[in-house]
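[step 3/7] inverse_fold.run input=structure_tokens len=217
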């Protein structure tokens, strides 16, 4: 004699669940967000271990509305604007191209990625506006917190997380006045606090942008 509960369980196990494209897209966005936050968290911990004053996941106004940056750091001779990427696979492209391409091993699926160097240029310009009138060097840095490998054209511009400390070594080309750096950091603290009221606006804009992202055929 077959138990009714067992029969019902078998019946349910034979059903095929069809997941719509929109559901898969949302799942992909959710997964990407988790991976991204994991990478940003790793960079934040590394900065803390290095004893670097830093702001994380901050907003600043710019000509296009508001822009989000992963990390702002007060180094000994500059303000660092860090964009963290937690890519996998192999990344190809150039510093000047609008997009980079992510090649994934499974079936050689390719995805177009916004060039993070260009992305970080926008962030640096927003910082420049806040720091107008101060002779403070501003350096944009791309940090890789994932397992991705990069083509030769990109290797020199993307800093692996284990080598993060190297970017904070003082360099002769970054002349500065320590007093200006102090003023700059206070300005950034005030500006990022004021911009927080626009976070929902920024998140809504990002949701619309992600809807337009498509894999390359």
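[step 3/7] decode complete -> sequence:
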């Amino acid at each position: 004699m077959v138990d009714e509960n067992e029969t019902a369980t078998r019946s349910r196990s034979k059903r095929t669940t069809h997941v719509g494209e929109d559901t898969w897209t949302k799942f992909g966005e959710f997964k990407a967000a988790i991976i991204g936050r994991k990478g940003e968290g790793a960079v934040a911990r590394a900065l803390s271990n290095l004893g670097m004053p830093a702001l994380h996941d901050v907003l600043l106004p710019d000509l296009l509305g508001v822009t989000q940056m992963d990390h702002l750091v007060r180094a000994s001779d500059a303000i660092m604007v860090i964009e963290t990427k937690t890519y996998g696979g192999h990344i190809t492209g150039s510093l000047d191209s609008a997009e980079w391409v992510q090649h994934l091993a499974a079936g050689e699926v390719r995805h177009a990625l916004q060039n993070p160097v260009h992305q970080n240029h926008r962030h640096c310009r927003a910082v420049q506006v806040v720091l107008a009138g101060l002779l403070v060097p501003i350096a944009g840095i791309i940090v890789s917190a994932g397992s991705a490998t990069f083509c030769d054209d990109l290797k020199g511009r993307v800093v692996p997380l284990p080598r993060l400390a190297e970017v904070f070594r003082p360099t002769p080309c970054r002349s500065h006045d320590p007093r200006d750096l102090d003023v700059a950091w206070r300005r950034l603290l005030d500006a990022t606090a004021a911009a927080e009221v626009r976070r929902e606006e920024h998140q809504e804009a990002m949701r619309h942008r992600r809807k337009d992202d498509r894999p390359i055929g």
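[step 4/7] annotate
The first strand starts at residue 54 and ends at 62.
The chain has one domain: 21-212.
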